[in-house]
Amino acid sequence: MPRLAPLTDFFRIIKSNAPCQFELEPIDGTTFGAKISFDPERPLSEIVDALRAQPDELLDAFYSVGGLVVLTGMHEITNHPELLLSISQLFGDEVENYHQTLTPAHMIHPDVDEVLILSNLPPCDRQPPPKPQPERNADGSLPVQFPHRRGWHTDQSFRRPPPDVSLFYAVTPCPKGQGQTLFADGVAAYAALSESLKDKLAGLDGLHALLGTGRSEQAVKNGDPVIPLLPHQLSQRQPLVRTHPVTGKQALYLCESGQMDWLDGPIVGMEPGPHGDGAALLYVLMSHCTSPAFTYAHDWDSGDLVVYDNRNLLHSATWYDAQHTRMMWRTTVMGNPGPDYAGEAKSWIPLAGVEPMQGLGKGNWDGAGNTRPRA
Fold this sequence. Notes:
single chain, Double-stranded beta-helix, 8-stranded mixed sheet, disordered N terminus
């Protein structure tokens, strides 16, 4: 485990000592994350080469600010999506090929298999999540706390080992004040729990489910049909508290409605179902983790690239007016999930001759983390 400099030192040191001369600035109004900017006159390919030569500079900054960095002005990626792949390779051993994961094919970039497309344009046709009700808090602020705010999750947690880091790029964001992405700090949330609740969580696992299989909270409440699953599509256990393999810090690791198994879970060993004691505990934890003290709302600019650590952060989409075009690209990086997953084979790899999405139809993930059938 590397020794990381204190956060305050990084805001002083990186500016003067980084070989790539990047600027690191705190994000206003939050206790985690930072903005990174590069020389706007320098080609992005040169910047990537310089970072590749000494990757620890960027990685140490990333981990020291809690696993969230906003790289601004990365517009060249739009015309050169392979640059997103090159940047992703700085954050881990393997950038995932989405054709080999449980991902609908129409959401994968036609030229770069490692890039997921999230857009309201065909063929992706991913519509925004609904507005929370009421749309604003009493003080006029954006609702972030579960269950007022729905859709909180961590990427691809229905697989073991789950991915480490995601990179989310704004090709065409919607207008300011819409379509923000929310982030919640699982480390700070866990640290703030009572000692008795920490003791209760020790050794407990959540049960995470593939989207659109009839196992979401609402599907179970509605009595929707449960889709039979092949072995590589089965729900997966994940610890409710993960120890980060780089920083050593403990973090809450959980999702809510769409990405937990509410039929056999959501918490292993507790009473299952939406009205069981497992559901009650999940509601307590999710509400705590997404309280305003632990969250940040990112309002997108074109060319923003947000890098976030799935091992200790949750995130959620927010509503936007679908009359506006929204085009976002994402990659996921894996290779260092921690000792809890040591030696495990990838749970989502099907048997020979079986397609990853076999039996699941053609799904369309909506902004709340649910999957709707497509014609």
